[in-house]
Specification:
Helix content: 10-25%
Order of helices and strands: EEEHEHEHEEHHEHEEEEHEEEE
CATH topology: Double-stranded beta-helix
Radius of gyration: 19 Å
Largest sheet: 8 strands, mixed
Distance between the termini: 29 Å
CATH class: Alpha Beta
Number of domains: 1
Structural class: alpha+beta
Strand content: 15-25%
Shape: globular
Number of helices: 7
Bound molecules: N-oxalylglycine, manganese (II) ion
Length: 294
Amino acid sequence: MTVQTLDHRTSTALFDITPLQPSLGALITGIDLAQPLDRPTYDALRAALLKYRVIFFRDQHLTREQHIALGAAFGDLEEHPVFSLPDYPQILPLISDELKERLPGGYRRTSDGNWHADTTFRAEPSAASILLQRVSPSLGGDTVFANAVAAYDTLDEETKARIDGLTAIHDTRTFLQFLDTEEKRDALQKAFPPVEHPVVRIHPETGEKVLYVNSVFTRRIVGLPEAESDALLALLFNQVKRPEFQVRWSWRPGSIAFWDNRATQHYAVPDYSEARHMERVTIVGDRPVGPGGA
Ligand code: OGA
Ligand code: MN
């Protein structure tokens, strides 16, 4: 097995990039994300995002308006159908139980402790997310990111051949527990009926093959008996759990993670008991395409 090793530290005239792990992740310093991005900086950030898959920043104490402006520089922004701040529909709050009463509207439990890519219940799942920490627990609450291209690459040839043409069903079931009436649950399921995505996705910008099933939103492989689908999904969900495909990020207030949601999965480590408050803006993506073109 070969794990691609990324170049060591590079400097551009615009900012410094320090890779954090061989497989993915880089820390970017010497940049102020509160300022509008000029074209060369924007291009260099996009290139870094595609190359390192998740890029991290420290001490970016953005206002909500600045956070939204940063995201909007990279594309249209999503509004989450279940979780969004009343006055800022493009901001998805993730709020620990300790803070919930002060900051209603957030959630914590669905994806904590579960590997996933975001919003694959959408026909056009998010391209990227920019997550900012506002309040840190004194210890714990890291996020782990995994390289889903490496997760695919290192499958054995037989499994690759088996999954290359398959599709899977993704849905919003995980959110139903957060809706308090049947009416709301029905409305969500009508607005977002189950969708079928390729199990192996061709990354629309890099052309790489990506393992595109995740344990939060993917239910079933199409055309396989249930037991076989469950067994294959379990094997594929496990593939992102290998530490050699991962980078682990410890947050502080003002820290940002900006990930390519088409090429990674992530895992919120639920090991803290104090307040933790995150805010995310999410960039609209396109319809996933498999190796056969559909
Ligand atoms: C997310 C997410 C992880 C975290 O923002 O999509 O899963 O650690 N967050 O809060
Ligand atoms: Mn997530």
